[in-house]
Write a structure and sequence with these properties.
homodimer; 95 residues; alpha+beta; Alpha-Beta Plaits; 4-stranded antiparallel β-sheet; globular; oxidoreductase (chains A, B)
């Protein structure tokens, strides 16, 4: 299993614009065969900082995700409203 | 529910010293009444970067955790071997 933390930084005044894109992205991504879980969280102390907690069966499942229609359509719409570059951390569970 | 990402940065040459402390911390923390889940992951691209994914019933459960015998004994042992200050991010699930 591959874990990924994907962090987005959205301009505060654009959060309400981005939320419907996020909602659709989460709903559609959870239907992908290689997706174990896909949750979107918000940082309670840093407005506009959104953190995806993603679990994939393997690296191929994540690659598949980035080629889906919903990813290729929604991520560029979200990226129009970022305040800084997204950050990705790939992890594996040790305990 | 409260989510917390706790990030530790351990000196690479001290990882094998710290792992048994982590293992005991995970095992004992999971037995706490307010702990929903408590997983330790490692960053695949940054050796020594360890990321706890924590879910607590509420803030009180997290406060209780920091007052347990295992936390007060093990965390200082781990902290002897850090290369930089730990980082904490409190979150809530939105989707």
């Amino acid at each position: 299993m591959l874990l990924l933390i994907a962090e987005d930084f959205i301009k505060v005044e654009k959060i309400s614009t981005v939320l419907p894109y996020y909602e659709e992205l989460v709903e559609k991504t959870r239907q992908e065969p290689g997706c174990i879980s896909y949750e979107l969280t918000k940082d309670l102390k840093n407005e506009g900082h959104f953190i995806f907690l993603e679990r994939w069966v393997n690296e191929d499942a994540l690659t598949f995700h980035t080629k889906t229609e919903h990813f290729k359509r929604l991520v560029p719409l979200i990226d129009q409203h970022i305040s800084e570059k997204a950050k990705y951390t790939r992890m594996e569970i040790i305990y």
